[in-house]
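Recall from the previous chapter that SMILES is a line notation for molecules. Here it describes zinc ion.
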Amino acid sequence: MASHGITRAAGTAVRTEEARQQQLRDVDAYKELVDLVSTKVTERQYTLEVIGLLTKLLKQNPEYYTVWNHRRRVLNALFPSDPADESSKHGVNDLLQNDLQLTFALLRQYPKCYWIWNHRNWLLETAESQQGAEVGRQLWSGELLLVNKMLGADSRNFHAWGYRRFVTAQIERLTTFTEGEAPRSLIEAEFEYTSSMIRSNLSNFSAWHHRSKIIPRLLNERDANTDARRALLDSELALICEAINTDPFDQSIWFYHQYLMSTLSPNCPSKDRIVLNLNNGDRQRYYENEMQYIREILGDEEDCKWIYEGLLFLAGAYLEVDGGTKVFTTADMRSWLEQLKRLDPLRKGRWDDLGQCLNL
Amino acid sequence: MSLVSGPGRGMASLPAETRLYVDKHVSYIQSLDTRKDELEYWLTEHLRLNGLYWGMTALHLLGHPEALPRDGILKFVFSCLHESGGFGAAPGHDAHMLYTCSAVQIIATLDAFDKLEAHMEHGRRKVGQWIASLQDPETGTFAGDEWGEKDTRFIFNAFLSLSLLGLLDLVNVDKAVQHINSCVNFDGAYGTSPGAESHSGQVYTCVGALTIADRLDLVNQERLGAWLSERQLKNGGLNGRPEKTEDVCYSWWVMSSLAMINKLHWIDGEKLTAFILGCQDPDLGGLSDRPGDMVDVFHTHFGIAGLSLLKYPGLAEVDPV
Ligand SMILES: [Zn+2]
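With both inputs in hand, we obtain:
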């Protein structure tokens, strides 16, 4: 009912009579299974046999959210009422492992299905409350491996990135909770993870985004002083400028550049800043350096609209911090805008508005 | 989204590549409920109520509201209603925010709240209260159902349904607005939760919720508009995130968000119109995600709604929210 990327020919091929008969048998078998499951659940037959039927149904149709709900109802009934009861630990563990395996297999097949991710999340939370913090910590740590696998298969899967943020938060919470151990943050490891993702594919905006969210916390946890903060900003600028030079047509890279520039603005909330105590003179120097660098690239890439957009953005920011037009002229700005209109007619309305806004 | 007014002027005679195959789309949508011998029909039962909303809205936009019988639609919608006040996707399916929102949208479009009251005593209020019960009083977010999945989508579903029910005062709007505001990124766009990457579907739900709450002042409209306008690719279609491929459903989410912040002119409407028209199946009707792909009612609805927002001649006018 919402299909993506399936060619029309594949869908509308004329069915042979034999194929039609087979389809009718499949329909009957599927409906029979659905009816059987709903009868048993309505009768509150919360048994291992029903778990098996639910598995069969979910493998055929993981989008059937009500069946996932049934599964949790059955599991909740099978769990012992007293989690401290040692004799039942084994059974609980088997049930949870069974579902972890099921959801893992289904996620590999349907990586964008919300309901599978939800069920997995519920399993982990339930395991922690049933089996205690230590088991919970081990299980959540194992989830990072799952996330790595999922992101290895599709490095932009936003379910996997969201789950990654959630999982690391759980591991940090439980590590802090464990007695005798100092709180251990995963922020450095996460920063390193984004570096490796970016190294393997510069155009992975999900990784750049994740990095932008990590940096402020990273600096706080490092207790970074002004020098350390400036050093980090400089190394990020060096990284992104190299990336721009490698592929100036990739918008992910320019968005990260915009992110870095946005942290310089006087309007940037202090919690999001990289360097905390910039004055307008500092800001002007940063903007000047970036403009100079981008103008150098312009020499080789006259037809890259991102360059002109970047320059106009910087010019606007420069004017905002009273830089005047020491390093560029209004005529420069006008010519950049003309280039944008030439190279990017799709967004003509936006460039017209920008010209008005900058009084060009 | 809902209809602003009745159908517009008659269709001008247009060359083949710019033609909308209205009659084909109408019969395609009518055919959807007759496919019970196909496994796909049963495997998508969990989307039945949404599907009905998509099909019905498309028919209204096409100027053929009579093509699906009003009584039949309402009978089905009420068969999905639980005692709790929530709606499931089909009879026997559990209540969930996604389907409750579709149900309320259908009832509102058909102007049938009196029928809801007749079907269930204080039905309107019960539905509103069910939605309100899913708000987390601490964070202002909404869960999708009793199992507690949270997502900025559900704030939008809640606001939209409650505003159509006239019961927005049942929830803490300010708290939910604060939560949306904590999901904004440096690019001016929004993610599913604080820290999550910007995504056009999420932008639509967040900007839509802020529009209903009359809090568009919180949106950095220049930056968001810039990010949204960069979703348009050379072929005219729009994508959902940087460096992804174009798709008719994302085209709707992006352009309706642009419309809500008065920046629809920041993309090329003619090229987008051509892209959407190119996704039609000219023989059997319906629209797909991309030219040449298999059609479905979801993309048929978003494609036609998109054309309406782009003022394609002959279509009824759509509200971007
Ligand atoms: Zn789509």
